[in-house]
Design a protein that fits this description.
It is a single chain. By secondary structure, the protein is mostly helical. Among the domains are: 24-162, VKOR domain (de novo design (two linked rop proteins)); 350-391. It is 76% helix and 1% strand. It is built from 13 helices and 2 strands. The protein has a two-stranded antiparallel sheet with strand order 1-2. Helix 5 (109-135) runs antiparallel to helix 6 (140-159), helix 10 runs antiparallel to helix 11 and helix 11 packs antiparallel against helix 12 (323-369). The chain is flat, with a radius of gyration of 28 Å.
């Protein structure tokens, strides 16, 4: 193999010397492989338990079965336990190869294995956030899995000796393609999600079915956002000097706004609209739905402007514009779209009140024509007036 052109299996068969380079075992890498194998066993256990339709019991308390059967137990239609099996299985094999392989691994393999490990760590942070702030229930097994990905990440970060600048330079064309893909998914998905939000919120409510449609499309946006965060992290680790460019610093700021906005809009506001409107988990406060709709419109404005601003900033490249001028233009665009959303909300309120008054008038007229007692008419009319007043 290599310079002498012989293969490992031929060497073993002939028991002759060969120029195959025998590697020494790498203890930290082997330990990462062992940790990954534990994650694989855990994912297989969860998948088998769900397949057998048995309740998943938490070992030290929690709501494991409720979490693993929640609306967030799949990603892009794929059950999370199967994603875990795929990740931990491939990671175990990869780290075993890097740790005990008898021949040198391909030059780029450690780099890509480490990159996938970093991605898995950030994805586990997202899932932990979902448990704590959206589902508001904890799954002990899920937290163990998150701990495994975190341990793998910190072991890689503390033991890696890769020349990141070299590897990032080698994959620069791939990074550019990845950034473009992330922008397409983010801008396109956000446009669709925000239009759906706007359409569904006309009646002050989002149904369970409407929320499911929004959540499915939103996951595409999350993929686009994760791609951009991932590619930017790699780029700036390899070439930290890029942070001196105003366009790159502006893109980091806008990405942070997009991330915070996505959390509020898709993980906090939309689920609350569904619960308050239809599940009726508590008594609704007067004007609460209208406030949530206005808040949603504000977040929609921020989302649309931010994604399109990010698209423009990325293609500015090495612009000579200062950071303050770029962010100033971004702020003006936000104010303009926000003013438009306020105007739209007022139009919707006016339309709702007009329709409600018309419905009340039609009801009163129908009762009168049906020959009801005259005394009941003022009582119905008074109730209708109170309904109209409550909406204003």
């Amino acid at each position: 193999m290599g310079g002498c052109g012989c293969h490992l299996w031929k060497c073993l068969a002939s028991r002759k010397s060969c120029c195959v380079k025998i590697k020494q075992m790498n203890s930290p890498t082997l330990f990462i492989a062992l940790v990954s194998f534990l994650g694989l066993l855990l994912s297989l256990y969860i998948a088998n338990t769900k397949r057998m339709s048995k309740p998943l019991v938490c070992p030290i308390g929690g709501h494991c079965d409720a979490v693993t059967h929640s609306d967030f137990s799949t990603f892009l239609g794929i059950p999370l336990e199967y994603l875990g099996i795929a990740y931990y299985g491939l990671a175990t094999l990869a780290y075993l190869w890097l740790g005990v392989a008898m021949i040198s691994a391909p030059v780029g393999l450690p780099f890509w294995v480490y990159i996938v490990t970093v991605l898995a760590f950030f994805f586990s942070l997202y899932l932990t956030f979902i448990q704590g702030f959206v589902i508001r229930q904890w799954c002990t097994w899920c937290l163990v899995s998150a701990g495994i990905t975190a341990l793998m990440f910190f072991l890689v970060a503390s033991t890696s000796t890769l020349d990141w600048a070299f590897h990032v330079g080698e994959i620069m064309p791939i990074l550019q393609f990845i950034v473009t893909l992330g922008l397409i998914l983010g801008v396109g998905g956000t446009t669709i999600v925000d239009l759906l939000f706007f359409s569904f919120l006309k009646d002050l409510r989002i149904s369970v079915e409407e929320s499911s449609v929004i959540r499915t499309v939103t996951q595409v946006v999350w993929v686009g956002l994760a791609i951009l965060l991932f590619s930017n992290s790699i780029l700036y680790v390899g070439f930290p000097g890029l942070l001196a460019n105003s366009a790159h610093r502006a893109s980091i700021f806008v990405l942070a706004i997009i991330l915070a906005n996505a959390v509020f809009l898709n993980l906090l506001v939309a689920p609350n609209l569904v619960k308050i409107s239809f599940k009726k988990t508590r008594e609704r406060r007067p004007g609460e739905l209208r406030f949530l709709r206005r808040f949603s419109f504000t977040l929609i404005a921020v989302s649309l402007v931010s994604w399109y601003a990010l698209f423009v900033v990325y293609f500015l490249g090495n612009t000579s514009a200062s950071l303050s001028s770029i962010l100033g233009g971004y702020g003006l665009a936000l104010l303009g779209v926000f003013a438009l959303m306020v105007r739209v909300d007022k139009v919707l309120i006016y339309t709702e009140e007009a329709n409600e008054k018309e419905a009340v008038a039609d009801t009163t007229k129908s009762i009168a024509l049906a020959g009801k007692n005259r005394k009941s008419v003022p009582r119905v009319s008074s109730r209708a007036r109170r309904t109209v007043k409550k909406l204003t």
